[in-house]
User: Fold Antitoxin from Bradyrhizobium rifense.
Amino acid sequence: MREIQFRDAKANLSEVVDEAIAGKPVVIVRDGGKQAVVLSYDEWRRLSQVYGFGRLLMGAPAGVDDLPARNRARLRKTEF
Assistant:
């Protein structure tokens, strides 16, 4: 990821945006620190999408055979 000073990013905004669209995010540095990242809209949408718990489970790479065996021992007695 390329870093560019804020003033240079302002002067070359078109170039910075073209780079982001090409899949190369650009970090904008101001006052000695990383302040922002320019990335393509498609990449931003992909990163900002929030999946539901069910979708995350369904997308997990583990299969049923990858799960540990269930412990069939008797449950301990509890009092309420």
Notes: The chain has four helices and three strands. The longest strand covers residues 33-38. The mean pLDDT is 90.
